[in-house]
UniProtKB/TrEMBL annotation:
Keywords: Heme, Iron, Metal-binding, Monooxygenase, Oxidoreductase. Its cofactor is heme. It comes from Talaromyces proteolyticus. One of its GO terms (molecular function) is oxidoreductase activity, acting on paired donors, with incorporation or reduction of molecular oxygen. Transmembrane segments: none annotated. Heme binds at C134. The keyword Ligase does not apply. Pfam families: p450. Gene3D superfamilies: Cytochrome P450 (1.10.630.10). This is Cytochrome P450. Belongs to the cytochrome P450 family. SUPFAM superfamilies: Cytochrome P450 (SSF48264). PROSITE patterns: CYTOCHROME_P450.
Length: 228
């Protein structure tokens, strides 16, 4: 279980849809048998979730600063040498002329559906432009894909229930050069005894230290439950 607070809508239902996409494919059962090069094409909805997560709330809304080495002109504007340029990534990923209902988390916008046509994927710009683009982009994207796919394969992600009522988690994004969500409540449990046994084996093998989040009990505490 992971617990904390929240104040804005969280698209948890899309994670369950992502798991449904996993169930419709033939994937290996073991953690180490997932082949990114072969299995990734079978999971287009997982890909769409990642693309939409990047678009919905870019980690760096104003990108990375760059300095001009020479004077230049752009759209009729003079840019002196030595100017610091800040790309407005947020504006690019939330343009209403480009994206339908840009503030809504909709992975289907990157898939061909009856209701929506495919919208532009601007994930690449989140890693910068030109020679100064992040050289670790491919590693980062592969690691994120594997993490999400395997997480959905092993864990069940649900809304918390209090006093018999399901709570709709919400997300508050803290502004800044690098943005991140405030703590919010969700329930994460292993999907079966088989998955619990697998995780226990890895925990014993690598002897993970206890998370320091337990020091902040009630304020973003993170706990893992491996048994019912």
């Amino acid at each position: 279980m992971a617990s904390g607070k929240a104040n804005r809508h969280t698209p948890l239902n899309y994670w369950e849809t992502g798991f449904s996409a996993l169930k419709m494919t033939t994937l290996p059962n073991a953690l180490t048998d997932f082949d990114n090069s072969k299995d990734r094409d079978k999971l287009p909805y997982i890909e769409a979730i990642i693309q939409e997560a990047h678009r919905w709330y870019p980690v760096r809304p104003m990108g990375f600063p760059h300095t001009t080495t020479d004077e230049d002109m752009c759209g009729g504007y003079r840019i002196p040498r030595g100017s610091i340029l800040m790309p407005n990534v947020w504006a690019f990923t939330h343009g209403q002329m480009v994206y339908h209902d840009p503030m809504h988390f909709t992975p289907e916008r990157f898939l061909n559906t009856e209701k929506l046509s495919v919208e532009p994927d601007l994930t690449s710009m989140l890693f910068g432009w030109g020679r100064r683009a992040c050289p670790g982009r491919l590693v980062a994207e592969s690691a994120m894909y594997l993490t999400i796919a395997l997480f959905l394969k092993i864990f069940d992600i649900r809304k918390p229930v209090e006093n018999g009522r399901e709570i709709n988690p919400v997300v508050n994004i803290k502004p800044g050069v690098v943005v991140h969500p405030e703590p919010f409540q969700i329930v994460i449990e292993t999907r079966s005894p088989k998955h619990r046994a697998l995780l226990s084996t890895y925990a014993d093998q690598f002897n993970w230290d206890q998370s320091d989040s337990v020091k902040n009990k009630g304020n973003g505490e993170l706990r893992y439950i491996l048994e019912p």
